[in-house]
Design brief:
477 residues; 3-stranded antiparallel beta sheet; 12% strand; 11 strands
Amino acid sequence: MAMRKKSKAKSKPKSKAASKKVVKLKSKKPAAKPAKSGLPPPSRKPFGQAGKALDGIKILDFTHVQSGPTCTQLLAYMGADVIKVERPGGGDITRSQLRDVKGADSLYFTMLNGNKRSITIDSKHPKGKEILERLIRHCDVLVENFAPGALDRMGLTWEYVHKTNPRMIVASVKGFGPGPYEDCKVYENVAQCAGGAASTTGFREGPPLVTGAQIGDSGTGLHLAWGIVCALYQRIRTGRGQRVLCAMQDGVLNLARVKLRDQQRLAHGPLTEYSQYGEGVPFGKAVPRAGNDSGGGQPGWILKCKGWEDDPDAYIYFITQAPVWGPICDLIGKPEWKTDPDYATPPARLPRLKAIFSTIEQWTMTQTKFEVMEKCNAVDIPVGPILSMKEIAEEQSLRATGTVVEVDHPTRGKYLTVGNPVKMSDSITEVTRSPLLGEHTEEILGKVLGYSSKDIVAIKESGAITPPAKPEKAEAA
């Protein structure tokens, strides 16, 4: 109909004025031009309803234990479709490690593998290799934390992957980067020691200590997730994938960078913010263990609070920050310290820090850590209560923000997990349970990789996705 109208209009010649008018009207509505930034126009959907940050990104997850699963779970929280590849019959070794509920996946596994799908594949089986090739063609990122050389022995070399899917990003966690130790296996505490954290943790009179925070495993997984997102962004410009490597030693060192800072400062004189300086204890050639000294240059220490005799966590971290020295003196009942030349300035206080914290502790011991926090925060004194894992698990504000999430699991029931630590206003996180072993195998084969029902039956019968049959025991004669 529109075409007939157009031909009708052509049969009636228009005046020059009319023609000019038509041109003028058209000029009011020029063709939409793409924004100079190349970005689409702002979404008109309400915040939180425009999809997740990584919607459409597909992750081939060859990870196990902690460092790799931390990385892929973070990507899954942000909306990526994470397909976890596991061995038929066994799966990720942590499914059975530190098991607390008989017959159910351990918390070790469930808390690191939420929001993922599980497929079982025998990577040595010819049909299994075919499935893996299809997955490589389908996915955007392959993530692995095998021992050095394991991926190559599976035939999944960088050259093979890049040839199969030039857009794929191959991301790896290794213990060490290139160098004399690159072939060594590394676990959490090994990484803390090799990354410089343990040598600077603990009290100077005692041995090096590792920290309870998993800065080697989960810390490196965090770094790898950041590297993957950067590689995905670069791929928009280049059209090709790349390799991303995070060494655990490197990740730990990055988190311990203030100690590398102090190592260089030490060459120019003693570290005056360390309590040993005030005590007249000479420094050696390397950064010492600093106990509970603050790494930010402000004197700080952990002090007892009311109930410490029975409660191992009735303590608070107290910082004697120079700008709030006056309110500290008033709060602990020592107003005269504000003008006393032995206490009035930070340099004067340095040799007296042990006595000063002892006096402050006499005050903190008269009230609970939460009462100390309330009174100190009212006058901007920085303090931090030592929160136990029990207190964190029961803290309702952490539940409200999604930092601690209760998840229901079909075999173990309800459990707590750590939610997405990154909160975004337009990418709302939904935390879902970890998958059962091979739970999504048929779904991925059919809906993702396009295998027919007949193909899937044949794959099952081939043994490529099922555990090998156990040999029958011979009957006794």
